[in-house]
Amino acid sequence: MDLVAGIDIGGTKTKLGLVSNSGECVVSMNFRTKEYPDLEDFLDKTAQSVQELIQKMPSKVNLLGVGIGAPNASNKRGTIEYAANLYWKGIVPLQDKLQERMDIPMKVTNDANAAALGEMLFGNAKGMKDFVVITLGTGLGSGVVSNGSLVYGYDGFAGEFGHIAWLPEDGRVDGMGVKGGLEAYVSATGLKRTIVYMMSKYPDESRFRSIAFNDLHGEEITRAAEEGDPIAIKAFEYTGEILGKALANFTLFSQPEAYFLVGGLANCGKWIFEPTQKHMEDHLLEMYKGKVCIMSSGMAEKNVAVSGAAALIWMDQYSS
């Protein structure tokens, strides 16, 4: 059976899976990234985990390659560079070191680029030539597809929309130290910060007044909004307004047919999608109005990040 190993390296968890040519993650596992602060130990664990996945399969596996999505990753050098949410600092030669442990075709890219490739091959972006995937997790990532190709830029780091200094210079500081950076407002972490902001601004009663910041979770905020909690509803409206205005401005750059919102914050459903669509449409220039939509991932039943990483290898298979 021909399969590709997809690896998604996150600040909290590293997820791995074996992915078929339809994008199905047939077997998967994960481990906590933070338990391996030493890079060599992490790479040993990663290579070992891929072998464990192969051994779980009931029939023989022909592993075609390994695709890896990671924050601040360069597809041109196979490195992770100055990632804010990982223990390994500076420039990390990820691909070269993992290749020493796994002598197999391997590709590395930014996690949001991997998600965009997965959406193009396996999801709702099939047939689209111009679209943007916005990953809303601990931070905000973006993968830009223009004229059917990913926009990598000169050094492989194009499309870092999360670190645009969108709000005033005295605004929140994001994961890369940018004051007013978009991800400090529009991300799972940003939503939690907005809950605290809303409680300081408005006197409304809210369940969150008795919950510590570190105990706040997106699922709980969504549930609170559905039950009419005014602070939760205000927080989602504020977040959607900021993201909608930002997407209206991003449209000036590449005029995508669609924006796909994926990741933990996107799982909040209508509470993030509806205000974002409204405020984007309100702020689009006239020639763009009614032409850009905001969509959810078509890979909901798949492991989006892992299948997206595997798409790095499957893309080559399709083109060969």
Architecture blueprint of SSEs:
Elements: E1 2-9, E2 13-19, E3 25-32, H1 39-56, E4 62-70, E5 73-74, E6 79-81, E7 91-92, H2 94-101, E8 106-110, H3 111-122, E9 131-136, E10 140-146, E11 149-150, H4 188-201, H5 218-226, H6 230-254, E12 258-262, H7 270-283, E13 293-296, H8 304-319
Parallel strand pairs: 1-4, 4-8, 9-12, 12-13
Antiparallel strand pairs: 1-2, 2-3, 5-6, 6-7, 9-10, 10-11
Helix pairs in contact: 1-2, 3-8, 4-6, 5-6, 6-7
In short:
The chain has helices spanning 39-56, 94-101, 111-122, 188-201, 218-226, 230-254, 270-283, 304-319, and strands spanning 2-9, 13-19, 25-32, 62-70, 73-74, 79-81, 91-92, 106-110, 131-136, 140-146, 149-150, 258-262, 293-296.
CATH T-level topology of the largest domain: Nucleotidyltransferase, domain 5
Number of structural domains: 2
Q: Tally the helices.
A: 8
* Element-level helix/strand string: EEEHEEEEHEHEEEHHHEHEH
Fourth-tier CATH superfamily name of the largest domain: ATPase, nucleotide binding domain
CATH architecture of the largest domain: 2-Layer Sandwich
Rounded to the nearest angstrom, the radius of gyration is: 20 Å
- In terms of DSSP E residues, the strand content is 15-25%
Determine the fraction of residues in helical runs and give it as a percent range: 25-40%
Q: In what order do the strands lie side by side in the largest sheet?
A: 3-2-1-4-8
The CATH class designation of the largest domain is Alpha Beta
Q: What is the overall shape?
A: globular
How many β strands by DSSP? 13
Largest β sheet strand count, sense and barrel closure: 5 strands, mixed
Please give the oligomerization state of what you see.
single chain
- The average pLDDT value, as a whole number, equals 92
Q: What is the SS-derived class?
A: alpha/beta
